[in-house]
Amino acid sequence: MPMLKPGLLVTVSVHSLTEKGDGIATLEGRPLYIEGALPDEQVEIQLNLVKPNFCQGTLVRVLQPAAARREDFCPYTACGGCQLRVMSDEAQLDLKRRLLLDVLQARGLDCPVADTLGMSEPFHYRNKAQYAVQRGPNVGFYAKHSHQLVEVDECRVQAPVTTEVVQRIRAWMRSCAVPAYNEATHEGCIRHIMVRNGIHSGELMVVLVAAEAPSDEALAQLVAELESVTGLASLILNINVAVGNRVLGPENRLLWGKELIVDSLDGLEFAISPLSFYQVNPRQTEVLYREAMRLANLQGNEVVFDLYCGIGTISLFMARHAKQVIGIELVPEAIADARANAELNAIANIEFHQGAAEQLVPQLYAEGVTADVVVVDPPRKGCDAALLATLAEMQPERLVYVSCNPKTLARDLAWLCEHGFKLEQATPVDMFPHTMHVETVALLTRMQGK
């Protein structure tokens, strides 16, 4: 083989995927990463980066396609959003189960792992879209690992109404000469467009993020442009003067409609503001939480701890079937939303505490407050060691672990299994079709004699 250098065409066989969804082949003893290639494929690639320990290549053509390959459904190939879009839906679900199995086995964990719970129609599932705006005005998403804008007219995983909203705002910017914000010079006005839609309620919130407020005349024309959009219930101007990547600023100005929209999950209503954390795939959120409820196996007389509770979604699910629920969350705004959501749903057997779970749970335990069932839904880094140690001392009958990161899940499960718990089962849930993301619900029970 000729000396490896950028521009060289080579043929390789792909054997696996990276955590980001890129194909992995082996070239002269080093890993070769290829975006868009699938396992069990023979592909021709052009090298674009050659390092002593790895190489990167651009897919030129697929010589022998994998059985899982399908036609790409998205024309915006530079967008880094849907890494698995050329893989069939069935193969994606199998891949996510195998990813979970692999990390559990690597930690020496053995338990039944269910088939991945997927969507019957895995498109247009997101209830929140955040578009970047740059000079043009061009509107779209950032390319992978960059702030280079990929202009997008329609996204298959966003709600169809977002396309209409973006088109109308783009036309308004042109007609009213409202400039886009320039990240380099920090001049201009419009930075982002955020659209939130209630999947069940049909209510729509449009948030225009600006470095400075457009003129009153321009804003009046914006209202006139958008008020006829089907379902529009809230139009908000968010002011973000900060330099950096944060999308939303602290100031919201209501331009039209109401300040909050409402959506429902399994019969529970949730108020949503521009800053609220709310699961972006509500249909799969219901699937996820119902699985958590099934594993919790509540009989109505239990005290439940919901740790890292966010705006109280799991807490409210559990409260309908438990004696009492105690929710703990670090973010003050989320706790305020959780309390408001409990009041909105007239649920009284629930209380929320603001603070770090690794600090508050040991305090509650020291005061004699214990739980029969504990639900944890931590961030990607997993549970804090101090929290795990307290749970090992408390020994609840059942511990339901909801995870967005299989690796930290497996780490924490292995530790818990060494400290009085038995891992009973795990269920992967496809919250984000066409991506490598795997959500998991796992059940641990207190070992006999503990």
UniProtKB/TrEMBL annotation:
The keyword Methyltransferase applies. It comes from the Bacteria. This is 23S rRNA (Uracil-5-)-methyltransferase RumA. Keywords: Iron, Iron-sulfur, Metal-binding, Methyltransferase, rRNA processing, S-adenosyl-L-methionine, Transferase. One of its GO terms (biological process) is rRNA base methylation. SUPFAM superfamilies: Nucleic acid-binding proteins, S-adenosyl-L-methionine-dependent methyltransferases. Residues 3-61 form the TRAM domain. Belongs to the class I-like SAM-binding methyltransferase superfamily. RNA M5U methyltransferase family. It comes from Oceanisphaera arctica. The active site is at C404 (nucleophile), C404. Catalyzes the formation of 5-methyl-uridine at position 1939 (m5U1939) in 23S rRNA. InterPro entries: MeTrfase_TrmA_AS, MeTrfase_TrmA_CS, NA-bd_OB-fold, SAM-dependent_MTases_sf, TRAM_dom, U5_MeTrfase_fam. It catalyses: uridine(1939) in 23S rRNA + S-adenosyl-L-methionine = 5-methyluridine(1939) in 23S rRNA + S-adenosyl-L-homocysteine + H(+). One of its GO terms (molecular function) is rRNA (uridine-C5-)-methyltransferase activity. S-adenosyl-L-methionine binds at Q279, Y308, E329, D377. CDD domains: AdoMet_MTases. Gene3D superfamilies: 2.40.50.1070, Nucleic acid-binding proteins, Vaccinia Virus protein VP39.
